[in-house]
Write a structure and sequence with these properties.
alpha+beta, two-stranded antiparallel ribbon, single chain
Length: 223
């Protein structure tokens, strides 16, 4: 597949995910951003200062790893550094999605990580969804995030919603969706108990076998 075709497909995906964030009520005003790595040094991304309701192909830009716009007339969003932090640390990651999903954002504000209390969620997301501690936007926030990138596929950021990543925009979106779903259930329950270790161990083994998580990715690379 040529770079042009790849960027065309990813541009379409970024638009679809951006619109879906607004439709779900996970963003308001100019909140949220979506990015996707097309090739080395070229990242398709939403432009800044726009509602995700109005994002279309003309409002998607391409930036390089220095955050410079190389295609498009609009400006890049200020939190592109968070996306680059993930992409530089994880070569398997193609897309990063950021939004302020209400239940997960509220959970993040509490500073409490969320155990994955449904068996299926352990296979998808691991033992728990961590909280990235509150930090000033920019380098401090990027440094705080970097400590979680290798072990997690979705995080709640204290004071800044949810960041999820995956092998394509759809996978990143689905991980965010599952995070919000779990946080909503936990809110309705009032409190949740982690799964017992005897259940966690075989579920985490399934996650690893599926090539997910740090250990699963390492196994896939060695195979």
């Amino acid at each position: 597949m040529t770079r042009a075709r790849t960027e065309h497909r990813l541009r379409r995906d970024v638009v679809e995910i951006s619109n879906a964030l607004w439709e779900r009520g996970w963003v308001a005003n100019h909140d949220g951003n979506v990015s996707a790595r097309a090739s080395a040094g070229r990242i398709v991304a939403t432009a800044t200062g726009l509602s995700k309701r109005v994002i279309d192909s003309d409002k998607v830009i391409v930036v390089d790893e220095s955050k410079r716009v190389v295609s498009g007339r609009l400006r890049v969003f200020s939190e592109i550094g968070l996306h680059l932090t993930v992409m530089k640390a994880r070569t398997d990651v193609v897309s990063v999605v950021h939004a302020h999903c209400p239940y997960a954002t509220a959970r993040g504000l509490s500073g409490q990580a969320l155990p994955c209390f449904l068996p299926e969620s352990v296979v998808s997301l691991g033992r728990e969804i961590p909280v990235v501690p509150l930090a000033m936007p920019g380098k401090d926030a990027e440094a705080a995030l970097s400590r979680f990138v290798h072990d997690a596929d979705v995080v709640m950021i204290e004071g800044n919603g949810v960041l999820a990543w995956g092998s394509d925009p759809e996978q990143a979106f689905l991980r965010m969706e599952l995070c919000e779903h779990l946080c909503r259930i936990a809110s309705l329950a009032g409190c949740v108990r982690p799964l017992p270790d005897e259940m966690l161990a075989p579920l985490l083994a399934k996650r690893r076998k599926a090539g997910l998580g740090k250990e699963g990715r390492a196994d896939a690379e060695r195979a």
